[in-house]
Amino acid sequence: MNLFLKNRVFRWLTISDFLNNSGASIYNIVFIIFAATLPNPKFMVFVANAIMLIPIFFQISVGIKADKTEKKVKWTISLGFIQAFLFILVALLQRNRSYLAFSAVCFINIISDIFSNFERGLKMPIIQKNVSEDGMMSAFSFKQFITYISSLLGQILGVWLLTASYQNFSLVAIVNAITFLLSVFALIVIRKEMSFEFISAVSKDNKSSLISKMKAILSNTKQIFGKEGTTGFARILSCIILINVLGSAILPIFNIVLLDKPIFNLQFGTSVLILQSSYILGVIISSLLPNDVFSKFSLTTLISLVSTILIFFSMINILQFPPLMSTIFIAFIGYVIGKINPKLSSQLLNALAPEVLAQTGAFLDTLFMLSIPVGTVIFTSLTLWHVKISWCIFFMFSLVALTLILTTNQRSKK
């Protein structure tokens, strides 16, 4: 919070991110609801979910482009205006609930999300230049807090607007366009202060193959974990991906479990909301305490802690403890993960040169985000087959994750 109040550039960048992310969150949930109003709703919701995953596959190439972009400030501001214009088009299209209109909205959604990823990559060197190395952990803890709060508030506002306007999807799209415009105006306030270091890429790099670029990105990624003073890069990365797979599976498992065993015999939707809120609350509290004991732990120690929590979490579910007990573990998982993400982001900015920040960050984001549907599909299928077997396999995966990170720590001490 002190950094937000004292650092003018960081403050306005954060305000801009809050407005941008709020707008995206407003529309993401409304986009799913819009799909459900079309003929053959189950299939259309499936398509909408798939559409929202497509930008993940462009993240690395978008990151490379962001690193090579010289006029970062100009493009960051321009993209906000373009996104606002795109959602004005969405507002016009959604007056007609047809497959053609839905297809056009899907395409615009993909383009807008790609632009958002591009804009995020453009901002990374600006943050690196204007925030001290010691302040990176606090900066990304606060940014994480803003991200979760804006996502939560955006979804609530989106559903409320839709209800209050009697399913007026065009109105919600216009509100989304306004948030993008406000996000741009927040950047215009500090336009002249948004400094960054830019090193022109040599011509040889421009002609390098995709394989060569990927090797370079892998090398850069190793530097991030090398900053931690550990060896076994592949083990650490595999462990983080495995934890991401397990973390993404928790809610889908409970979406099925809570149908038969709701918390305190509450309605299904209320029980799901309690579990979701416990995780979000854990992350938010963690983000507001960037200098607590856990923030001083190394990245590998935090990963070991999460793996251990997941082992105990799966055990209480194998033993069929009440679902309410799980909410405590879920909140603690959110709290510790709330330390891992800012630490990883701060190490990214502290370890790498500005000309490779966006592409390396995009590479990590792609790996972690692709693990989400994997965890969802695997454990949803297992839970439908047999709940206890699903938790047993969850337990074994958690044990593998802990073994990977502990053996990494042992090798690094030799």
Automatic annotation (TrEMBL):
Keywords: Cell membrane, Membrane, Transmembrane, Transmembrane helix. Its main location: membrane. One of its GO terms (cellular component) is plasma membrane. It is a multi-pass membrane protein. SUPFAM superfamilies: MFS general substrate transporter. It is found in: Cell membrane. This is Transporter. The chain crosses the membrane at residues 12-37, 43-63, 75-93, 99-118, 145-163, 169-190, 232-254, 266-285, 297-318, 324-341, 362-382, 388-407.
